[in-house]
């Protein structure tokens, strides 16, 4: 992944680090927030190799647009459960309940209204 711009990697990881416990974001949501709306797969690639960039990043809080978990990563479900995230009968996260709304959390953190 050496051909990726370090600023792009840093932007993705900074956003992922800001997802609160008990909430999830989608790959596409992260891509839009960094100004790369068509690069959801690139976000996934960066997160799949996040250990290369140091630090512990809560990558388990990122799911696909349907709320599905990353294939082959059994710990993701347990980590989300431990944070209070429940799953629908089909195994997906209920995005209507747990999707991170960056604006609402930004306002809440600054003592404005929380919803």
Q: How many β-strand stretches? A: 2
Derived from helix and strand composition plus strand pairing, the structural class reads mainly alpha
Indicate the radius of gyration in whole angstroms: 14 Å
Shape: globular
Say what the CATH topology is.
Arc Repressor Mutant, subunit A
Overall tally of structural domains: 1
CATH class: Mainly Alpha
Supply the CATH superfamily name. Answer: Winged helix-like DNA-binding domain superfamily/Winged helix DNA-binding domain
Largest sheet, in brief, is: 2 strands, parallel
**Portion of residues within helices:** 40-55%
Distance between the termini: 39 Å
Name a few traits of the molecule.
two-stranded parallel ribbon, Cysteine methyltransferase, 115 residues, 3% strand, 6 helices, mainly alpha, Arc Repressor Mutant, subunit A
